[in-house]
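Q: what does this look like with calcium ion bound?
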Amino acid sequence: MSFRAKIILALVIMNAVFLTVITGTTLQFFAHNGYERLRAHARTDARLFASAAVTGILTHDVGGLQAVVDEILTNPDIGFVRVLDRSGRVLAQGGARQALARPFHEGTMRRSGRSRYFEVDQPVIVAGIRYGTVELGLSVRPLRHRLAEGRLRMTTVALVELLLALLFAFYFGSYLGRRLKVLEDAASKVGEGQLGYQVMVRGRDEISRTLRAFNAMSLRLREASDERQRQDGALKELAATLERRVAQRTQELADANQALQKLALHDPLTGLPNRALFEQELGRLLMESRRTQECFAVMILDLNGFKAINDSRGHDAGDRLLRAVGQRLQGAVRASDVVARFGGDEFALLLPALRGGGAAIAVIAEKVARAVAQPLALGLENVEISASIGVAVFPEDGVDMLLLIRRADAAMYWAKRHAAGFQVYDPMIDVQAAEPDAMPPHERRIHAAMANGEFLLHYQPIVSLIDGAVVAVEALARWEDPERGLISPADFMPTIERSRLMTEFTLHVLDRALDDRVLWAADHPSLPIAINISALDLQDDGFVQRVRDRLAQAGPARLVFELTEGALVSNPDQAAWVMEALRDAGIPAALDDYGTGYASIAYLRTLPFDRVKIDRSLIAVIDTNVNEREIVRAIIDVCHCLGYGVVAEGVEHDGLQETLRALHCDYAQGYGIARPMPAAALCDWLAWRAPAGARDEVSLE
Ligand code: C2E
Ligand code: CA
Ligand code: CA
């Protein structure tokens, strides 16, 4: 129902009720008042009649009385009259006969025929003696007539009133409706987006005031919107500037990174890729070739007699010669082949997509040898130099990176010993070279160091970030060379990995750790020891059994084997198989240095790991670099989802521990907790850290 209709209806109902009540009470009042006046009128008429009839009664003048009666009856209001003597006998009467024929009742109103009469009597008393009575019936009709007239007038007035109210309500409702419609239209316009829309306002009433308030609100809305647009614009500009700056900075960083990478992955003397880059390329090629089943070759080349030239003609000449060899090697092979310098006079070539088998290899090797053998002008003389070349082919000679390099190396060494120029790997070479005398010099050196007990272990604790309990110690190898002093693993591990002694070394480390354990076994019998193992160990089918034998001999010990993702990419199926076997033997595995390689967690979840160690290069910056912190948070979350415990490496100060705790990292290891230390020092540290036996139940598992 519209607003206008509601107003009209309300006013009409109100008016009708009001008028009905007013008219009803007024008419009732009139009626009551009319009867009172009628009664007074009748009494007066009766008294007048009595005084006019006194003489006639006293004298019993019936004729005179009749004349008085007739006279009285000329008044149309009087219906009938009667004069009675003292004994009630009628002396004279006149008027309505029917009424006269009935008994008279003083003070009542009675119907007689079609008329109604108000009946009053008046005694006629003279000097205290009653001589008679007059009776009079006053007609009610004139009164009723007046009352009907009054009612008609009242009703007419009420109806006119009602009509006027109706008209007023209609006008008022329309007026209000119109004005509210203006507000409604304006509000819709603002709603449609016409901010600032204004309504014409003239009056000062409530609606005008509401409209003015609306105008003000609409204006303020437009101002606010303009302001917001201005702010949006400024913000966009700011964002664009920021984006430009970030892009610029990112580019600078990328350039710097590229320059650094080039520095880190290239040999400064020749500008050729170094060993690290060569291994990266080899790793990538291994993954690809495993998919495509394409052969490729790893070629190791060592110059013959370079030391003599270097010693006799000086380092400058030696450097020039090495640079020239590098260039010639690049010229001798395809652009897609990789030529790297491993160090000293040793070069390596990676020859992908090899077709034609042994014959093709021989052709390439000869081409390479010829290129190197070209005379080179060094000062006044021409110098000629030859090379020994060893080749290992994927997949025949190995499906693993280190194995391929080691076998190419062994073949090269064989070629050198037999002055054969070049040699493709053959298992016979390993058999012949098992004797220390037939070993390449670096291998012989390692072999001797193990035999002489020159390798020792330092131990670094790993602690829980929740309660600080020591959950494991990691065994880290050191080489105490009688001539060179203490050598760190970064300097000797690559040599061991190149030799055929890798697994021997791992088992040697295991033996030493099991020996050292005796020092703390009494106080901390179940403290796990983490041992670093190599990809090559996983390729060795006998590895698990040899570990089992060691444990059987040394008594039960809790171990964890740590291996890097590099160990897994070359032959994941074999790795998974060995890891399962180790787990069955009660030795869980931890993924080491996570975050430095290219393996994704999704790929790693197919391997049976128990925990992940996040590399210190990622951990070191989480306090200062928000992005890195978020990356580490994500890694931790994903690891937890996959059910791995997480160890943070390289925790160098207490602040990092706080941050790591906030990221829900489980364990920490680093200089900030303890540096790697000899076994005896570890015992002291453990005793200082916790009373004997107090924390032995806690472990990484
Ligand atoms: P890793 O397995 O990642 O071992 C942790 C290395 O980080 C150790 O170096 C340790 O001394 C160092 N480190 C620990 N906390 C901190 C810290 O807060 N700040 C810094 N800057 N460094 C910290 P280390 O002993 O020189 O060993 C280097 C790597 O050599 C090891 O890395 C591991 O890959 C390898 N390695 C050591 N011992 C063995 C072993 O017996 N067998 C094998 N296969 N590899 C070993
Ligand atoms: Ca490790
Ligand atoms: Ca590590």
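The chain has a mean pLDDT of 88. Residues 460, 476-477, 488-490, 493, 509, 532-534, 562, 592-593, 616, 649-652, 669-671, 676 surround C2E (ligand 1) (CB under 6 Å).
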